[in-house]
Amino acid sequence: MNELTQMQSFGLTLPSPAYLLGAILFGIVGLLAFRRGKKISIATLKWAGVALMLYPYVITETWMMWAVGIGLCAWVYARWN
After folding, report:
1. Which of 14, 49, 58, 78 has its CA 20 to 30 A from that of 42?
2. Which of 46, 55, 54, 40 is nearest to 75 (CA)?
3. DSSP state of 40
4. Tens of pLDDT along the chain (81 residues)?
5. Whole-structure pTM value
């Protein structure tokens, strides 16, 4: 437990389970969108997939990650066909 308090004193915290679940879920959806966009040659779908896979590394707030992820998933859904 001493290591955890030492990490927190440096400003490092562990992500919540909701954040981890969202990062994994949106990463999988992003991978599927990327593969589909590459297969059928739709650039917007391919880049939306890349964005879904990479944005959790930039956003630190859980609610914001879920909001952006749902928005990007809606974009992918609209461009799927």
Report:
1. 58
2. 46
3. T
4. 677 788 778 877 778 899 999 999 999 999 999 999 999 999 999 999 999 999 999 998 999 999 999 999 999 999 888
5. 0.83
